[in-house]
Design a protein that fits this description.
By secondary structure, this protein is of the alpha/beta class. The protein contains six helices and seven strands, in the order αββαβαβαβαββα. A seven-stranded mixed β-sheet has the order 1-7-6-2-5-3-4, sandwiched between helices. Helix 5 (about 130-140) packs across helix 6. The longest helix has 26 residues, at about 190-215. The protein is globular and about 45 Å long.
Length: about 220
């Protein structure tokens, strides 16, 4: 039997995250009230900074279990990330253990964090993998789009991939939506159609978030 990540650990991670994020940067959180208070939910986060995951983990109104590439679980980070309820995933294969654990989070009414682009890039949701649609449809979860808008284009970064320290980072939560078409189908065609719907919603949210924040 696959052991599920600890909800209590994820709450500890949230408290650590909020302390770190507000200590190192100046987060401005918008739309957090839109996040459903209970039930399975997936935070679909754009990914352009290394701090995107910890930032959302810290400022989200619910404790979150993120799917994180296995390469991040190195040295002392391995037991730490596992201890705070995060999910190790092998992106080079069909990681059935990670899939089972992620679905378990949703079945227990928890919050799952996913970078639907699969890797850090432009952060514009231009390339989506089908994994998000699968988890949303299979787990019966609402998707909440999350735009993390930092200041990576400005000078002053001490570390590549991070916004300058004490700079403002906007985190904008969008309206929750359902990925499926209501039929409950999980065929490849249905998931492909769901992925197209998801991409449209996420792209629109990102455009709205940029207008709202002036980023």
């Amino acid at each position: 039997m696959t052991e599920l990540p600890s909800p209590r650990g994820a709450e500890v991670g949230r408290r650590i995250g909020v302390g770190l994020m507000y200590g190192l940067w100046r987060p401005r959180v918008l739309g957090a009230w839109k996040v459903p208070a209970t039930g399975p939910v997936i935070f679909a986060v754009n990914h352009s900074h290394n701090i995107d995951g910890p930032m959302v983990m810290g400022v989200a109104p619910r404790a979150t279990h993120f799917l994180i590439k296995k390469e991040a679980f190195i040295g002392p980070l391995d037991p730490f990330l596992t201890g705070i309820g995060q999910l190790k995933v092998d992106r080079d294969t069909t990681d059935r253990t990670a899939i089972t654990r992620a679905l378990g989070v949703l079945e227990n009414g928890g919050a799952l964090g996913i970078f639907p682009e699969g890797t850090r890039g432009e952060g514009d949701f231009a390339s989506l993998r089908a994994g998000l649609a699968y988890f949303a449809v299979r787990g019966g979860a609402a998707i909440v789009p999350v735009a993390v808008l930092g200041s990576s284009d400005r000078p002053g970064r001490l570390i590549k991939g991070l916004p300058p320290l004490r700079s403002r980072v906007d985190v904008v939560f969008g309206d929750p939506f359902e990925a499926g078409d209501g039929s409950g189908r999980r065929t490849r065609k249905a998931l492909d159609e769901a992925t197209v719907r998801i991409q449209k919603q996420l792209t629109e949210h990102l455009e709205n978030a940029r207008r709202l924040t002036g980023r």
